[in-house]
Batch of 4 targets.
Target 1
Amino acid sequence: MLTPLAYGLAVALTLFVAFIGARFLVSPRAAAAGYGVPAKEDGDAAYLEIKGLRDLVFGLLGLALAAFASAHALGWYMLVVALVPAGDALIVRRHGGTWAAALGIHAATAVVVLASAALLFAV
């Protein structure tokens, strides 16, 4: 019973990250607003696309690990990748984003990713 839950949560999270990455590539300004720090109109869109590529690759890597590696390998991946939303929370606050975005989006995501890692280690 625990194995499908552990893998299901990990796959859902990695699909979500891949979706976020694709959104930053397709509609970078809207994605930045959803991130919690709207992009400036005259800002360099390349940095938004870099974030999109990073997230898309992280999502695809997670899916590859879910398909071809052990639960522990996927668990280590989730544990390490939890640093990204935790860091994102700090970045949002540092650049004028709201506490709601920092905690409600990014810190909460980090907690869910850590829970996913814990489930994968328990399998």
Target 2
Amino acid sequence: MRIIRIFDPPPESCLTSLHPISPMGRVFAWTAFFEALTWAGLLLGMWLKYGPQTTESVVWLFGRLHGVVFMAYVAVTVVAALRLRWPWWATLLALLAAVPPLVTLPLEWWFRRRGLLSAQR
């Protein structure tokens, strides 16, 4: 049994430098970020439209932006899954993550920690 002290370095499995992100993984990460960002803008617009009922222009703008970014996210996910050789469950999770709001961010963080965004797996 090993005792872990406070000032011991973290185990190698916790180090993110072991899995440097590939260029395709970086494209996936940025697309996941923008997909979540447009989701947040769309949610803000829906709140403005139905809450205080001040404007519909935010829904108009972010609805269109989110539609374009959603389609780009699906395309980038398929390309990343093929290039980075993701298992089928990772591809399915990445595609399903685009449906509920803001789920692409934690998924991307989890993929990064697991090494799914690196070229060397």
Target 3
Amino acid sequence: MRGVDQRCVPGSQVDPRVAELRSAVARLRRQLAAHRVEFRDRGVAEEALAMLAGLAAADHPDIPVLRRSLLLVAGAIGSVSALGEGLRQLREAVDLFGTSPRA
């Protein structure tokens, strides 16, 4: 996992954290599409992943919305073990933007 302080690679315009987020979202979306077993919150997971894809398309995603969307995805697919690795990778990509403040 890369450090939070790492920013753009010289000669590149894309923040490596954003690139990692885009990759993790795309990977989990593909895994979810390939998972043929229906489950109750699949629609919620698909909508939250679409939201994350939109956030990842921005150069500077809204971090609180990013975290809320991650929670929706985790709640929707957290019990689907076949998607566990993709969910872990997504969480790690979101964590690259820093930890959320504790209330």
Target 4
Amino acid sequence: MATAVRERPAALILTDTAKARVASLMAKAPEGAIGVKLSTPRRGCSGLAYSVDYVTEAKPFDEKVETPGGTLYVDGGSILYLIGSTMDWVEDDFTAGFVFNNPNAKGACGCGESFTV
């Protein structure tokens, strides 16, 4: 009997506008950048924050999300906080930035800078 292998679903879902933003970032990325990386460093009044930066090397436990315009890496230490989340890019007259719909977040600070799990 043959073993069936099924593709693992992505831990993080990117909207079309988030994918377009990743492509835009990669189009002007510094030399040596292989993608952008999402992590959740400890900061802010609630504990964790979302951070997106250029990355020059993939770490062994990073989750890799391929998009048509470039690769998004999710920090291996942050993945448990982000499973099932949707990452969007939103622009209006006053702000522009990535917005996260995170089912794991139990609360957030008043300014929206950080969240708790």
